[in-house]
# Entry
Amino acid sequence: MDKMISKDSLRKCLYFDIETAGITNTFEELEEFDSRLARLWEKRCRWLRTNSGEEMKSYTCSDFWKIKSSLHPEFSKVVCVSFGAYGNDDEFKTQSFTGEEYQILNDSNKVFNNAVNKSWKLAGHTIKNFDIPFVGKRMIINRIDPSPLIASLNRKPWDSPYLDISEIFAFGGWGQTHTSLDLMSCVLGIESPKDEMDGSMVHEYFYDGKIDDIKKYCEMDVTVLMKCFDALSF
# Structure
């Protein structure tokens, strides 16, 4: 009988997570930086008001910018990418990139290509719906040719190089409540990566210059991710 996830297969994975922030600190700064993009954010906000909770119906574009811009790759940027992998000594090691977005993405692309050369899979939490398309879009915007690992055009579903633990833990269920990494780690008896900060705080931390805190948080996410995968393997 095939195992759900084998221990050996986890040694052939590149684990990754990203952190993002709006391209400017405030909506007012966006208006000065790119008035056309600001008008498009206003249009996006009309959609957000319609599709958000009742408490957000009165939110201004500035309000939404603080809490939502980092979730939309056309209006935000990657501020940290963390990778994890098992070394030859079987110890789990992490590596992170911060700094200018172009350099973060360019360095990350090299890591992706190295994984392709090793025939490794890309492992993460909700990476198929967020991290991968986000990084892909930002690479195109930055005029970087995305690695084949994340460029999924014309790829057959059964050829997917991704292990998305949010899908694995759902066991094929439809309409199930989304299981966050924090909740998953809790029920699996693994320490939380969200004790000191969570993703909603990254935008503020970034513009306060707390890059080391963001890096630490992102690397913790990758480490907890690995432990969750390990808990699901046999």
Remarks:
- The chain has ten helices and five strands.
- The longest strand covers residues 76-86.
